[in-house]
Amino acid sequence: MEEKEMSKILEKAETLIEALPYIQKFNRKIIVVKYGGSAMSNEELQKNVIKDVTLLKLVGFKPIIVHGGGKEISQWVGKIGKESEFVNGMRVTDAETMEIAEMVLNKVNKSLVSMVQELGVKAVGISGKDGGLLQCDKKYADGQDIGFVGEIQNVDPKVLYDLLEKDFLPIVAPIGLDAQFQTYNINADDAACAIAKAVSAEKLAFLTDIEGLYRDINDRSTFISRLTASQAEELINGGSIGGGMLPKLSNCTEAIREGVNRVHILDGRIPHCLLLEIFTNHGVGTAIIADDEVVI
Q: Can you name the residues that pair with 123 across neighbouring β-strands?
């Protein structure tokens, strides 16, 4: 065997050895993956994400996927001649739009189930309606009525525990019910955070359209690869984080404060970003950790 070829083989072996302590530490632990954005609309990236999550399952993790579908919902809303309307980043959801959203999210859900099962892992697609998983009230945007948009009030994770115990990979669409059994569309980030807290997930990973956190978004040298929940709160209170990242970071720190051990903000456009972040020493995104976490 040529020296160059042998070197490549040894590099692969070193990568596997680097992953070993992480596999040992997180064996049988729950990880919640929020999946959406560009990684969902690109077929190749979509397959890579599903391969990553499937691999996590096969090496001993207990993954739960919570997915979005906003871009596809907007496409279908446009097909019937309606324009998508947003208030503070939240979709205004009338009865007709709610019907479309539920249809699209269920379509996306079953597509992901098929992709996982094609790789040899059993998956079950559910929504927050199933088993009373996501119980919500009507959400308002600064006092403005935005229709059938839900704010999660309670999570009953029994259906998830049952599926995990039976060795299924749960895939959750962010739709919930209120006390009168009215259907509501729920922000997928909110759903992922609420579920992660309810199951005391070891990890919560957001696949987004950005590389991670920057102290100054215009200065790439200010990238933050790791910070504690307290440091994240300082960033929020300091006003250096804005736009759509502000509610996401607030969700992340709240999840850490309520028992999730570590939250990852990853660029879903990077192939296999989930594996690189979890199984390598340096990672590729931003990790938010508990103030007292011991890092390996």
A: 169
CB atoms within 10 A of CB 233: 17
Q: Which two tokens stand for residue 64?
A: 């739960």
The two three-digit tokens of residue 168, written as one number: 């299924």
For residue 285 the two structure tokens come to 């995104």
pTM for this model (two decimals) = 0.89
Q: Answer yes or no: are the C-beta atoms of 253 and 230 closer than 8 Å.
A: no
Comparing 131 with 254, the larger pLDDT belongs to 131
pLDDT digits (tens, 9 = 90+) for 202-249: 999 998 887 888 877 777 788 888 888 888 888 888 776 766 677 778
Cβ(155)–Cβ(194) below 8 Å: yes
Quickly tell me which residue has 């759509």 as its tokens. Answer: 244
Cα–Cα distance measured from residue 68 to residue 54, given in angstroms and rounded to the nearest whole number:
19
- State how far the Cα of 187 lies from the Cα of 235, in Å rounded to an integer: 23
Sign of CA dihedral 52, 53, 58, 61: positive
C-alpha–C-alpha distance, residues 257 and 237, integer Å: 16
- The residues, any chain, with a CB within 8 Å of residue 22's CB and separated by 6 or more, are 278, 279, 296
Q: What is the pLDDT of residues 99-146, one digit of tens each?
A: 999 999 999 999 999 999 999 999 999 999 999 999 999 999 888 899
Tell me if residue 167 falls in helix, strand or coil.
Answer: coil
Q: DSSP for 33-80?
A: EEE-THHHHSHHHHHHHHHHHHHHHHTT-EEEEEE--HHHHHHHHHHT
Query: What pLDDT is attached to residue 296?
Result: 45
Least confident of 57-66, 102-111, 116-125, 266-275: 266-275
Reduced to 3 states (helix: H, G, I; strand: E, B; else coil), residue 90 is strand
Both structure tokens of 83: 């324009």
**pLDDT at residue 185, rounded to an integer:** 96
Question: What is the number of H-type helices and E-type strands within the chain?
Answer: 10, 16
